[in-house]
Amino acid sequence: MDITLESPLDMHLHLREGDTLDLTVPLTADHFAGAVIMPNLVAPVDSLNNLRKYRQAIESYCHGKNFRPYMTLFFKNYSRQELEECREHILGIKLYPAGITTQSEAGVSDFSTIEKTLEDMQELNIPLLVHGESNGFVLDREREFLEVYRSLASRFPDLHIIMEHITTADTVQLLDEFDNLSATVTLHHLMITLDDVIGDLLRPDLFCKPVAKTPRDREALRQAVFSGHPKLMFGSDSAPHPRHKKECIGCAAGVFSAPVALPLLAQIFEDEGCLELLQGFVSANACRRYDISPPAKQILLTQSPWQVPHYYKNVSPFFAGQTLRWSINSSFS
Amino acid sequence: MDITLESPLDMHLHLREGDTLDLTVPLTADHFAGAVIMPNLVAPVDSLNNLRKYRQAIESYCHGKNFRPYMTLFFKNYSRQELEECREHILGIKLYPAGITTQSEAGVSDFSTIEKTLEDMQELNIPLLVHGESNGFVLDREREFLEVYRSLASRFPDLHIIMEHITTADTVQLLDEFDNLSATVTLHHLMITLDDVIGDLLRPDLFCKPVAKTPRDREALRQAVFSGHPKLMFGSDSAPHPRHKKECIGCAAGVFSAPVALPLLAQIFEDEGCLELLQGFVSANACRRYDISPPAKQILLTQSPWQVPHYYKNVSPFFAGQTLRWSINSSFS
After folding, report:
1. Which residues of A touch B199 (CB under 8 A)?
2. What is the ipTM of this complex?
3. For the range A17-21, what are the long-range contacts, defined as Cβ-Cβ under 8 Å and sequence gap of 24 or more?
4. From CA B254, how far away is CA B256, in angstroms rounded?
5. Sign of torsion over alpha carbons A262, A265, A267, A269
6. Chain-centre distance for alpha carbon B201
7. Chain B contact present for A234, CB below 8 A
8. Which chain B residue's Cα is nearest to A198?
9. Residue B37 and which of A73, A120, A260, B269 are 20 to 30 A apart at CA?
């Protein structure tokens, strides 16, 4: 059996910068019609000038691939003029609480100081993408942040707020309380719990932020995604870290899932008997929620087993060394 | 200021075997008068013959150190005769649920099959040391095991049951419900929570079983220990793993705290203003609960800062590279 996916999108992706682009860009551009590019580089992407340079660097690695990088700015207090200038060049602005994940030191530490920027974003119809975690105890962070989501969603009812890489049952529930809330869900949070990370031997390759949660939380995510929830979009949060930053004391957070995302999604949707909902999760929901029209691109998946490499260059991917049932046969535009 | 500790004991210690003994035995024998030696070797210590060999191997590394290894057998269904023969050679028998931690594959999978051995142990006054975790979700394992403790404690009221390396507030509470329950507490569980392991960068050096829990759990442990709870004994659960088994995908569980245990205990007891309770925690409580008389040995701790090495051979210790306020000045018998 084959499946053809129309213009699949990865709505949350870390490509990083420099030489790493040579690894990350083609792997995603071969499989997707577009991806939302996170701005937390070593120097955050927080000006139109930096954003243009970053997009050009990315595009230099995807010639002929019919792939659109949807750029984002790193949230700070932008002037109205800056927002107006940036507007047509970005999909949205990504907000990080300060210090919450990789390269987020320049993030927001006081939410009372960002009202004006949020008002302007609402008026200019610029979506707000949010890494929603508090600075509390690691397992409470997403739950503790829900009140911030509630406050933002109610006070800026016309601001499209995307709760990124959600992981808990409570967050799934919140999604339905406000029309202006959407959410991305990663592949790995649909598959693993904290048990997989620390329950047996420790698995730094599965260590990510937000950390994987309980079986109950995973079940809530799965139920929502596998029932075709219209406000849930696939965002891999794929994040490459070289081996020496993963297999060490002080290991970086991030799961490198981009190369296996579509085949594994096909597998788990098939296992749940809902392959027909995959198109919505990997493209249609995002097109509708963001009102975007990605490049026309068809990805053909076939039921032909392949073994995931142990490493892509020096980065170990999700499901390294394991055999997947679905593989990507070809893409055509 | 100096403190002199009388015959400090480590009531839960992994020395491992082979060449590793050359590292582990002297580090503990220099600081302690005795230690309870865990039997989960690659081939479990489950016969008097193996136990004698293991004790001899250990003793070959502690000549002249006035140190007593308190040996334990790996729990299985022993005959009455075996128990009678072993009795004077062991402090107790250590029970592992099957597969719950390092080298525990030969552990117990069905508690209904071990009644006769427990009855004999009760009659022969042989303590039962227990790694109390279920096979459930990693954060629920200790809580789920409490019903086993309750059942054992009530049905074998004269069997001394030691709940090893306890980590949760619920377990602290259970301790007071049965006279025949005691517990060991590690140094690291008094100091870290899951936040330290996975809240920022991932710390495989702090990864252990049971995994560190919540701030509330740690607080319950600290309150009990720092108020001099008479049924709590120090057991480091120190477990050396070489660098290549810690800094890798599939990292082994265990914190190597033996070399820093007494100086750090002095530091945290001093910080809590209860240095006078340290003697009870590291020796007197264990002597009373187990009815043992360790070798007379005094350890002098002085307030003289020292920096913990980054590695002992190829094993990274707890607090590697950090400076401690207390150091061990000398030991004398």
Report:
1. 137-138
2. 0.95
3. A17/A41, A17/A42, A17/A54, A17/A57, A20/A240, A21/A57, A21/A58, A21/A60, A21/A61
4. 6
5. negative
6. 27
7. no
8. B138
9. B269
Per-residue tokens: B315? 């094993």
- How far is residue B159's CA from residue B128's CA, in Å, rounded to a whole number? 7
Structure tokens at B302: 């002085």
Computed over its alpha carbons, how large is the radius of gyration of chain A? Answer: 18
Query: Is B142 at the interface with chain A, CB within 8 A?
Result: no
Residue of A nearest to B204 (CA): A249
CA B8/CA A328 separation, integer angstroms: 63
Alpha-carbon distance A151 to A283, whole Å? 29
Cβ pair A32, A301 in contact under 8 A: no
Catalytic residue numbers of A?
237
Element housing A221 (H / E): helix A215-226
> What pLDDT tens digit does each residue of chain A (333 aa) get?
899 999 999 999 999 999 999 999 999 999 999 999 999 999 999 999 999 999 999 999 999 999 999 999 999 999 999 999 999 999 999 999 988 887 888 888 888 899 999 999 999 999 999 999 999 999 999 999 999 999 999 999 999 999 999 999 999 999 999 999 999 999 999 999 999 999 999 999 999 999 999 999 999 999 999 999 999 999 999 999 999 999 999 999 999 999 999 999 999 999 999 999 999 999 999 999 999 999 999 999 999 999 999 999 999 999 999 999 999 987 666
In chain A, the domains with their CATH numbers are 2-332 (3.20.20.140)
Tokens standing for B127?
């303590």
Strand-pair category, A68-74 with A298-302: unpaired
Residues of A in contact with B194 (CB under 8 A): 137-139
- DSSP 3-state assignment of B183? strand
Active-site option among B10, B237, B271, B291: B237
